[in-house]
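Deliverable D5.2: sample structural annotation.
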Amino acid sequence: MDSRDKHVHLWKSFSFAIAGIKTALWSERNMRIHFFVSLIAIGFSIFFSISKWEWLFVIVAIGGIFSLEMVNTAIERVVDLVTEDYHPLAKQAKDLAAGAVFIYAITAVVIGTIIFLPYFFRWLI
């Protein structure tokens, strides 16, 4: 494979990734909720002029929840592809993936609270 073929392959893989992101945003309600909440967090970050360190935590929280939600969706789709019948292991796989998203979402809320609550109090006073 020459270097031009490698670049074409790289861009093609990026296009697959972008297609996956679009699919998640258009087809998954929770992904749209996370997206909306992330826009609010970014808006507050700009409004309050948070520090670079605080921005890093906000970005990691947003990127993490998007990534985990997409992994959860992928697991759900694969399980549904493998079996339409109820199976306890299929349920566990879906529940575990959903639980991972839930834990991270709680973590993101805690991060947001730690960062933004002091700014809100200073803004109100």
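Annotation notes: The first helix runs from residue 3 to 27. The mean pLDDT is 94.
The annotation will be released with the project's public dataset once the embargo ends.
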